[in-house]
Protein: Flagellar basal-body rod protein FlgG
Organism: Teichococcus coralli
Amino acid sequence: MRAMSIAATGMQAQQTNVEVIANNIANVSTTAFTRRKAEFQDLIYQSSERVGSASSEAGTVLPVGTQVGLGVRNSAVNRITLQGSLTDTGNRYDLALEGRGYFGVTLPDSTVAYTRDGSFKLSPEGQLVTTEGYPVNPAITVPADAKDVTVNQAGEVLVTDANGQQQNVGRLELYMFPNEAGLEATGGNKFLETDASGQPTTGLPSDPGFAKIRQGYLEASNVNVVQEITQLIAAQRAYEMNSKVIEATDQMLQTANNVR
């Protein structure tokens, strides 16, 4: 009976769905996390009577045919790149992006990774780095005698020294991709460019279409816990229904085996 294998694909699909939902809920407090959504496609169909083929009656065709589907498969886990809410932290090195774009960070192998997590720190040399110590790209260094640091919406890093004099020590650049969902997540709130994402367009926070920078804020996760719990319950029920189909099929097989 094909029903048993069909229901098994349904259970496997819902297992993947629950795993994606679990990851969303686990990252509800992760800075700039973007929720994921599992997407599915039906499998191939077996046709005992193909639609449009000639029927037993001369000169007529089958208007519907007989097709039986063979189940479902996971086609993708899509990343929903909606803006998360901004949380006031009061930390002058916390930078949130309001709009489209990513910060660039330089990895140890000189590869540029991309992130919306703007919880930056200062290295021992005064360089602006991520929580893992990766320097921001392009590199920005804050002098040791700086009394105050201001990052305006245009991305300019302005430093005030002990004499009250202000100087510009650099400007943050942003990166935008044709297909943000095509970026490869590597953990640590970082992404890498892929053939699917396309090549990045570099711009400044003041450029049209690019995000503005909000100093003293961080972007929160865009996970909606109520929505995730609702989807979790639906996935659990779908998993149970597929298991019921397997139980029913097993009972039908037992009935057939008991026929004398």
Observations:
- The two ends are 20 Å apart (CA to CA).
- The chain has two helices and 20 strands.
- Residues 3 and 187 are 39 Å apart (CA to CA).
- The mean pLDDT is 92.
